[in-house]
Amino acid sequence: MSSEARLYTFSPDTQTKLRKFRLGTSRANNPQAVIYQIDKQSLEIAQDGDDTFTSMQELADELPDHSPRFILLSYPLTLPSGRLSVPYVLLYYLPVTCNAELRMLYAGARELMRNTAEAGRVIEITEVEDLESIEEKLGGVD
Question: Which of 78, 76, 80 lies closest to 27, judged by CA?
Answer without folding.
Answer: 76
